[in-house]
Amino acid sequence: MYNAKAYAATSATSPLSSATIVRRNPTESDVQIEILFCGVCHSDLHQVRNEWSGVMPTIYPCTPGHEILGRVTSVGSAVTKFKAGDLAAVGCMVDSDGTCPACKEGLEQFCPNVTLTYNFPDKHLGGVTYGGYSDSVVVDERFVLHVPENLNPAGAAPLLCAGITTYSPMRHWGVTKGKKVGVAGIGGLGHMGVKFAHALGAHTVVFTTSPNKVEDALRLGADEVVISRDANEMAKHAGSFDFILDAISADHDINAYISLLARDGNITLVGAPEKPLQVAAFGLLFGRKSLSGSPIGGIPETQEMLDFCGKHNITADVEVIPIQKINEAYDRLLKSDVKYRFSIDMASLKSE
Amino acid sequence: MYNAKAYAATSATSPLSSATIVRRNPTESDVQIEILFCGVCHSDLHQVRNEWSGVMPTIYPCTPGHEILGRVTSVGSAVTKFKAGDLAAVGCMVDSDGTCPACKEGLEQFCPNVTLTYNFPDKHLGGVTYGGYSDSVVVDERFVLHVPENLNPAGAAPLLCAGITTYSPMRHWGVTKGKKVGVAGIGGLGHMGVKFAHALGAHTVVFTTSPNKVEDALRLGADEVVISRDANEMAKHAGSFDFILDAISADHDINAYISLLARDGNITLVGAPEKPLQVAAFGLLFGRKSLSGSPIGGIPETQEMLDFCGKHNITADVEVIPIQKINEAYDRLLKSDVKYRFSIDMASLKSE
Fold this sequence. Notes:
352 residues; alpha/beta; Quinone Oxidoreductase, Chain A, domain 1; Rossmann fold; 27% strand
């Protein structure tokens, strides 16, 4: 074991502050990474503040962060895919059983024995796993990804959650050239959805409640932008979408979007509004439409996504912050005051 | 034109009573059918009582009925698929444009210019179409189906709506041998769902609120029956279903069923509860599950379904009634007091 610098919360109401956590010494199958950047996901805030106490109560101290990007500093003797100096990344998962049907299909996110990157039982050291708000992490090579060197590292970090979460359902539901694809909600997730839909060749339509996001949506790759509060604008697109990515975390009228789907169209939720969605059955019936949800993606698909990003030079739009500004960043996150993701520059941790 | 005997309602509050309607003389592409049996669908009642006034206001007099089975009495000169004496059937549609993408795929139910069997503009005679509570009907051969002679005709009539409505989503979502399939709600639709799931080779589990339906569900082909109000019983099946057919027309907790789906599982609504369904997003996210809806099926699939029924000797469980008992049957339908579909013996119309 060794000590690593980190930021951690000691209770649901404490700000994050400087802390020391322990990491295991790399085993033969482990990769040790010096963390350069870590994206800030809304899940980090939920976990730190114990807002999921019903399903995933927080164990303190809690070091969140699952959009981890860094340089490999050392590898175990059995590691074959990485070497010191490689640009590498870790996302929401750090382990799984490797033997269940989901794992065998490369869908580790559905493994019943998955280990998430933070606040999950740590098989090696006991206690819980600690995330990427830290200067170093040690992860089994099966859960380490290669990052194309051409990508801006600060912007590449959020690909590990916001990226794969939006890329995976688009691939699953067949977003390609010739399809008409909507992206509802332009935040950390939605803005990645726009970039992917565009890069996959789809006719991409952004839905937003904010007229002041129109210009930015076009810049991100939208072919059209619809102000979702304008019923006339919405009606023009009735029955025309093959796929809609619903990245709205606030309560909203899902039926308005279902009515925009073409026959056999699908709308996939990647945000999770607090209240149940009110779904009118008739809207699904007439058109054999479907509503689904999707969480992150498996390791093979995450690597595919990173390679796709390398090829198309796609990264998240980030505001880089020092770790000392993380509490302020959380406050701003709650006001959607970020375009479109915070990325923590971990060099700032050296001064702690 | 010629006169046909029928039963019709003259207002939303009138009982159905004896009436005379006009039918067109068969054109060269038409098939004329002497109706032997007509199933009673809940939609008939909704339409007759103008309960869908918002979307499909009823034009009176209204003769409903879209589960029509009979003998061909004559065919137009250009008809090639039918001849006098054939056992034939007509379902919910009697025409479509034949040129749209949906029609070209044999999915006439999604044609924007579909003509439904009753209460829809009649292109030939003006006014509206009249359904199967009648002694005769004339329909373009494209919308007439062959019925295997081995099937009991009274029980075969409901295949044209209750049958195809449950068969189609099972085929669409890949119900086959080796799959675990649930059917929620054992009424006119649900009981057909059980028969199809069983005949398609799936491990079939019935969900019902009524312990007194257990024995019958097993008789219909269920491998297991779960009392849906028993949370422990439900929990035993968590995360295990590939597909669930939701044929519950009353309000119900859809999340309880979503939690029973396996990864990538689908639940399809064929009933349409009045109130919106309350869908918790997390239930769909963790498992990439989907909720969809499905209405009837296209003509090629309806023929496939009838042929499948012929092969497996599948018909609806019906209570045969004379047309004179139709109003009483509607009252009983509202109390779910029928196992599981009324089928009107049209011979009873001769005495009117």
